[in-house]
Amino acid sequence: MTAGNHSWVRLDGIGDELLAVLREEAHEWLVAKADDLPKGSEDTDPSKREVEEVAALGRLSSGLRRGEILVPDPMLRELAARTTSETRRLDELKEEYDRVRAEHEGWTALLAHLDAAPHAGAREDEDPDAEPESIVEDDDDPVASAPGDSVEIELAGRLSDDQLRIVRGAVTGTLASRTGDLRHLHTRQDPDRELREIAALARLAFWLERGSVEVPDHVVQEVAGALAEGVAEMNEDDEIRERYEEAVAEEEAVGALAAIFSDHPPAGSSEPSSEARP
């Protein structure tokens, strides 16, 4: 449908999910812009530009509810293009999201090999109270025997280089901080436990540098578990993932809207245009 030099363009091609995102974004933007307009006679009169932006957002909000917009609309086109450029923050969110996910996967992989068991290498059908069988060392086996009942597990192939680097950095940093606080040991409620945990951190730091861990080690497992929980809480995994997913949806929605205006530039524009969508 056409109206003079303008055409009504259906938004069916954008998709229901992206349309829902656009409706919410447009409504919030309209409310914020309208709220910024002067509210009384003592306020400075709004500029023509401010009024035009609010009017354009009103047209957009109304059009999104109807499922069609009137093009060309230079002001709306400009606002859509501006919003598209502002969604560049998606790259920063993606970088943060990837970092948090790598930390989570690294700790998850490490904890999987530190989980307490009746004895390392035991089968589910074995009696946990039975005497453990001797372990024959095999140079080709990544799980090699160690003194006592412990088993040395190679981390190569179980944790990636990046995961090892992340976990190693967290452990050595925590060890440095905890040892630095030893001068306050006499103020701790349980000094013996403090020393046991620091010793466990030192063992874990050494093992990570060596590229293998010795299991079972209940104190190391507890310390590593506490570190993993602390990293998760600090990074707020769920919140970062939600922000990233929202940013992805917003960028796709705004990009789809901006494409419509790119297809219908203002009259006299030097930009190429395609025929109006039916």
Topology:
Elements: E1 2-3, E2 6-10, H1 16-36, H2 48-66, E3 68-71, H3 74-86, H4 89-114, E4 143-145, E5 151-154, H5 161-180, H6 191-210, E6 212-215, H7 218-235, H8 237-263
Antiparallel strand pairs: 1-2, 2-3, 4-5, 5-6
Helix pairs in contact: 1-2, 1-8, 3-8, 4-5, 4-7, 4-8, 5-6, 6-7
Please give a quick description of this structure.
With 278 residues, the chain is mainly α.
User: Fraction of residues in helices?
Assistant: 55-70%
Main sheet characteristics: 3 strands, antiparallel
Order of helices and strands: EEHHEHHEEHHEHH
Query: How many runs of DSSP E, i.e. beta strands?
Result: 6
Number of helices: 8
Largest sheet: spatial strand order: 1-2-3
Q: What distance lies between the first and last C-alpha atoms, to the nearest angstrom?
A: 8 Å
How much of the sequence lies in strands comes to 5-15%
Molecular shape: elongated
Radius of gyration: 30 Å
Helix/strand structural class: mainly alpha
Q: Could you list the spans in which at least 5 consecutive residues all have pLDDT below 50?
A: 116-147, 271-278
Mean pLDDT: 75
